[in-house]
Amino acid sequence: MGHVYQSNAFGVAEANQRIYRFISEEGCKQYEAIRSSIDDAVLEGYLTPSQELSKDNWPTKHLSNVAYVLEHQLIPYISYPYEWSFHYLKDAALHHLNFQLFLLKRNIVLRDASAFNIQFIGSKPLFIDLLSLAPYHQGDYWLGHHQFCEQFINPLLLRSTLGISHNHWYRGRLEGVATSDLNRLLPLHKKFNWNIFIHVVLQNRLDIIAMKNQDKVIAKTKKQKGFSKLAYEEFLRQIKKWIHRLEPKNRGKTFWERYTHTHTYHPDELLKKKKFIADFAHKVKPQILVDLGCNRGEYSLLSLEHGAKYVIGFDFDQTVLDLAYHNAKKSSRFFLPLYLDASNPSPDQGWLQTERCGFSKRTRPQALIALAFIHHLAIAKNVPLFQLIDWLVNIAPQGIIEFIPKEDPTILNMLSLREDIFVDYHQDVFESLLITHAKIVKQEKVSKSGRTLYWYDRNNA
Amino acid sequence: MRKIVYVFSFLFFLIDIPPAYAYIDPGTGSMLLQGLIAGIISGFALLSVYYKKIKNFLLLMLFKNKKEITPSHNNSD
Fold first, then answer.
1. Cα gap A452→B37, rounded to integer Å
2. pLDDT tens, position by position, A351-399
3. Helix or strand (DSSP H, E) at A313
4. Alpha helices in A44-132 (DSSP H)
5. Do B22 and A231 touch (CB under 8 A)?
6. What pairs with residue A24 in β-bridges?
């Protein structure tokens, strides 16, 4: 049995690639109250499918104080808000609000608003925490509002009003961006926006008042009449409308049309490269393929067309990630582009450092492609070539790595203003290192400047 | 006079004051906020409900009138 996260009422455990949820005797009342709406929520695409197991099928017979065991559908790749680009976080926020509006009609609410409760299958968001659902009572406030602001609204505002992407801030503080921090960062003229005034400025001020006058505030809050259901729904709808309008700063809708991409390849060379990748995807047919340095997702989508089932792309450039999101949505294939600084990947963190798994533990694909990628680490970040190859080949048993020689204009540019201290960065060294880890199935020079693709397989090394 | 009071109270909220570090549920400010704006939000909600009702009523009237006009127009042919 894997690690168990658990409150008094519920727990989640992973065993043999299966996800189980345990509902205790104390928690079963809440579960039974929302049970009849689960199928509808799954059918409408809001909630991850789950199945109630009969006692004979429980993963272990030695469970005390457990009333129900559910098995959840496995998510192909767990990703976190600090790995999502702006538009994925925005989609997750809208999904949360749409789900709440759907549930309110059935007299159910979401007790919290954690962004970690949403996962993506391809580019489709899905709510995964069944037991965040609880019965609605007349006059209830939206208990998750504070959390929703910190986990969704504030990180989105960081980019849309200040042009700062949320990823590093979010990774440093798993609760998201603190309202008090954002309030201090926002320039005065932005605070005259009605929504920013309500959700950032006023909320922050009331937080401070609440902290200074704890007893009074608690008594006052208890006396307050609360929200009517009509007001609750309207509150959610207004936030939804607002979030729908948010876009990264200085980027209108025409951005997508205006953007033109310049390839460093001649059209014939590009065809050669594409054929190599298509052949690889067709032969290997990986369940999951990782595309390191995915850029706009051109080769990710090509791999999906030729046999890969699910592609996770990684890049550190926010602009190309926005474009990759756009392409992923347009293609409707299972492609999920995520943020990654490969020289500093997501670590194990959170409670007991097991709550949020790091990149290496989560990322075990059947195949990888690393095209025009290694020089970003070997040259720009001074990572030794032997460590780099070791790291790449360890990620997936089969893959394609592109080697770009020093004579290529890209590397010449990189070295134009600095000393060339990279004595090991040569094709023959690269090849000899790769051979020590894996068999080279195929290699092909795909550009005049000497760019070469290597198809490796460590299963037959 | 009311407008002046509103502007000053708005500006009061914009003045930056240092946060108070104390132990209280971080959602308390949000609850106070919801209590404070509940009336406004309900007003918006009612407006949108009545706006829809009035809009539907007007559309229905317009549609009815058109229906009444169409046969008479045909008859005149």
1. 63
2. 999 999 999 999 999 999 999 999 999 999 999 999 999 999 999 999 9
3. strand A310-315
4. 86-104
5. no
6. A66
Percent of chain A whose pLDDT exceeds 70:
95
pLDDT computed for residue A447 by the predictor: 93
Cβ B30–A149 below 8 Å, yes or no?
A: yes
Q: Do residue A308 and residue A163 come from a single domain?
A: no
**DSSP per residue, A396-460:** -SEEEEEE--TTSHHHHHHHTTS----TT-SHHHHHHHHHHHSEEEEEEE-STT--EEEEEESTT
Phi/psi for A105 (5° steps) reads -60, -25
| Same domain, yes or no: A399 and A289 | yes
B66 min Cα distance to partner chain A (Å): 35
B10 chain-A contacts, CB cut-off 8 A? 197
Q: Rounded to whole angstroms, how far apart are CA atoms A210 and B16?
A: 16
C-alpha span between B21 and A208 (Å, rounded): 8
Identify whether the C-beta of residue A107 lies closer than 8 Å to the C-beta of residue A139: no
pLDDT attached to residue B10: 54
Among B19, B34, B49, the residue with its CB nearest the CB of A141 is B34
CATH number at residue A442: 3.40.50.150
A154 and B CB contact within 8 Å:
no
Strand A310-315 and strand A335-339: pairing? Answer: parallel
Same domain? A59 vs A104: no
| Distances from the Cα of A79 to the Cα of A98, A285, A399, A451, angstroms | 21, 23, 22, 32
Distance CA A297, CA A336 (A): 9
| Structural domain includes residue A117 | yes
Residue of chain B minimizing CA distance to A182: B16
Instruction: Please state, in angstroms and rounded to a whole number, the distance separating the CA atoms of residues A291 and A365.
Output: 10
Round to whole Å and give the CA distance between A255 and A249.
11
SS3 A138: coil
pLDDT, tens digit (0-9, with 9 covering 90-100), for A125-159? 999 999 899 999 998 999 999 999 999 999 999 99
Nearest CA in chain A to B19: A208
* Encoded tokens for B50: 């009545």
How many domains does chain A divide into? Answer: 3
Q: What is the pLDDT of residues A2-19, one digit of tens each?
A: 444 444 556 888 888 889
User: In a 3-state reduction of DSSP, which class is residue A338?
Assistant: strand
pLDDT computed for residue A250 by the predictor:
75
**Tokens encoding A119:** 């996962």
Q: Does A35 fall in a domain? A: yes
Q: Is A133 left (phi over 0), alpha (psi -120 to 50) or beta?
A: beta
**A259 within some domain:** no
Average pLDDT, chain A: 92
Domain endpoint, select from A24, A45, A72:
A72
Edge-to-edge strand ranges of the sheet holding A4-6: A4-6, A10-15, A18-24, A66-72, A50-52
Q: What is the mean pLDDT of residues A201-214?
A: 90
